[in-house]
């Protein structure tokens, strides 16, 4: 049986969308309606960015358009193709590495693309979908395939869809899909007064 409900074991109350956002590798083959996809990318549109530069771009393929789906899918490394093949939507995120208003390097571009992807992920969660972002892509192949211009860098691959049955995955991915969710404690990365000095905000009682 598919278990789509994998809430995070949080240490402090957070919004339900954050509790239920996760990154499945098992996807159902059910297509994502075009109006739902539009909403996901509309959410990404409204992320914050340095100087409001909005350096994010997304190259998208759906199984309703097999040719372009395969062009995006072909930019994933073989390992990720092994599980992402069931996702009905695949995408690449791309960062514009210069500020449009002055042509200077934008060292925040990857950060801001990440924010846009996070907005997309939360909108997906709100609609019963999930996304899985992946570093395992070929930026060179993406540039060649889609004629991505200089000054722009492919950031990540994205699989989008409704969570599927973990039993469809090979081992050990099946185990990873159902294993308890874990994160470092906030006390290990929230500091006050100096590096490594845990802030009392998260030190606990």
Short description:
By secondary structure, the protein is an alpha+beta fold. Helix content is 31%, strand content 15%.
How does the SSE layout of this entry go?
Layout: H1 16-20, H2 34-45, E1 56-62, H3 66-73, H4 78-84, E2 89-96, H5 109-126, E3 130-134, H6 139-146, E4 152-161, H7 173-178
Notable traits:
alpha+beta, 7 helices, 4-stranded antiparallel β-sheet, globular, NADH Oxidase, about 30% helix, 4 strands, about 200 residues
What does this structure look like?
The protein has 205 residues and is of the alpha+beta class. It has a domain of 143 residues: NADH Oxidase. It has a four-stranded antiparallel beta sheet, sandwiched between helices. Helix 2 packs across helix 5. The longest helix has 18 residues. It starts with 15 loop residues before the first helix and ends in a 27-residue tail after the last helix.
Helix segment count?
7
Uncertain runs are: none
Taken in chain order, the helices and strands follow as: HHEHHEHEHEH
Beta-strand percentage range: 5-15%
Q: How far apart are the termini?
A: 40 Å
Structural class call reads alpha+beta
Approximate helicity band:
25-40%
Count the strands? Answer: 4
CATH superfamily caption of the domain at 23-165: NADH Oxidase
CATH fold node name of the domain at 23-165: NADH Oxidase
Rg value: 18 Å
Write down the oligomeric state. single chain
């Amino acid at each position: 049986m598919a278990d789509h409900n994998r809430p995070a074991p949080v240490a402090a109350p957070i919004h339900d969308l954050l509790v239920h956002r996760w990154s499945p590798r098992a996807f159902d083959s059910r297509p994502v309606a075009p109006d739902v996809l539009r909403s996901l990318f509309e959410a990404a549109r409204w992320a914050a960015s340095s100087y409001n530069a909005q350096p994010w771009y997304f190259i998208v393929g759906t199984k309703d358009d097999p040719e372009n789906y395969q062009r995006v899918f072909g930019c994933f490394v073989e390992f990720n193709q092994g599980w992402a093949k069931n996702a009905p939507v695949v995408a690449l995120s791309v960062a514009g590495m210069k500020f449009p208003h002055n042509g200077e390097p934008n060292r925040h571009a990857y950060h801001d693309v990440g924010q846009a992807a996070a907005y997309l992920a939360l909108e997906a969660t709100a609609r019963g979908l999930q996304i899985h972002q992946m570093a395992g892509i070929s930026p060179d192949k993406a540039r060649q395939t889609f004629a991505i211009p200089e000054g722009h860098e492919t950031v990540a691959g994205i699989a989008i869809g409704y969570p599927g049955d973990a039993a469809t995955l090979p081992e050990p991915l099946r185990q990873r899909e159902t294993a308890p969710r874990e994160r470092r404690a906030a006390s290990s990365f929230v500091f006050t007064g100096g590096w490594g000095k845990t802030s009392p905000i998260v030190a606990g009682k």
